[in-house]
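In this section we walk through a basic example: taking a raw amino acid sequence and producing a predicted 3D structure, encoded as discrete structure tokens. The instruction is simple. Fold the sequence below.
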Amino acid sequence: IPMFTKWDRKSYYYPDLPKNYQISQYDLPLGADGFVEIPLDSGRIKKIGIIRAHLEEDAGKNLHTAGNYSQVDLNRTGTPLLEIVTEPDMNSGAEVRALAVELQRMVRFLGVSEADMQKGHMRFEPNINLAITKDGKEYRTPIVEIKNLNSFRALERSVSYEEQRQLDEFLDTGKVIEMGNKTTRGWDDEREATVLQREKEEAHDYRYFPEPDLVPVELTEEWLDDIRSCLCELPLKRQIRYVREYQLSDYDAGVLTSDRSISDFFEEAVKAGADPKRICNLLTQTGLKMAKEKNCGINDLGIKPKSLASLAEMIETGQISASSSAPVFEAMVLTGKEPDILAQQLNLIQKSDAGELEHIVDKVLAENPKAVEDVTSGGKKSQRARGFLLGQVMQKTKGQANPKVASEILDRKLG
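The resulting token sequence is shown next.
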């Protein structure tokens, strides 16, 4: 991050830019020489280099929906954006998608933007060409920039399509990269194909010169240090830590770190003394489902992390069953009461008194001599008969018997 940066005018003539120049940054971008780490399907973490990140104003949006004419939407023209230019470190459409997904998660996690591609908060314009080895010599195809991508699916498919198109073109024509033969192609979602839009100018065609109406910006190390101190742990780092520290699955850790409010809620509940896996299950299986149904965030449900930790503790100690946690969770959202009170009111507290359960087990065994005989005789029927007897115990207690305690008593009685 340079201590001094400025803006420049970038001149070009195209319908999406009515004033024929764009305020951008040429030789002194806001940031340079960075990287972002992305998770791959193989489980490996790959580092993608960032050449530069510069601030500029947005252009309009060209719409090529009709057969014989185009339209231009100028609503977003002039709004500021940050353009990030990566190194050519990605080797497939899947890797490009992985980068896009991780950048979106990072931007949302840091509170920079909602990063909704459908709303134009975030978009990607991949530049693609191939390095082809033929007869011991390497050839590079002309660079193509793809536009009109409004989803991760379109991004991945367009890159994969363009890979094959460029290979076919090279094998057919032998066309290779030359000065001035870079092109821009648009993605046609219906045809799932790229369509030629225009030839791309080289950098010197833009006639960059310093923007006379904006003063340069000088930063200080103190200001940068203050910003750095406000940054939280990045989502991928936190995801990896959850797997290592809490033994969560990579999938569950990814769900928890998909949103900072969910992740922070989880952290607070764990700090309150709850088992991390229990909290994870409660959040991912019940909490997020309820938040989605109510179209709200996890914090808007009105449950405190400490209260959820108490619910997890009740499951851990056998006061309620895991299956009973969902109705208690829902009641907590509706009433704001603590889980122990609600479990009592809903009659979901498990019977763990050994003496009481032993009396019920004795009664079940007396009523089902055939099942007892099947268990004690062994063979194929034994396991099924034992399950039947345990089911009868649960039925007599209306599902309130602690399965672990009841099972231990049953095993002892059956020898």
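Looking at the output, two observations stand out. The two ends are 73 Å apart (CA to CA). The mean pLDDT is 91. In the next section we compare this with other chains.
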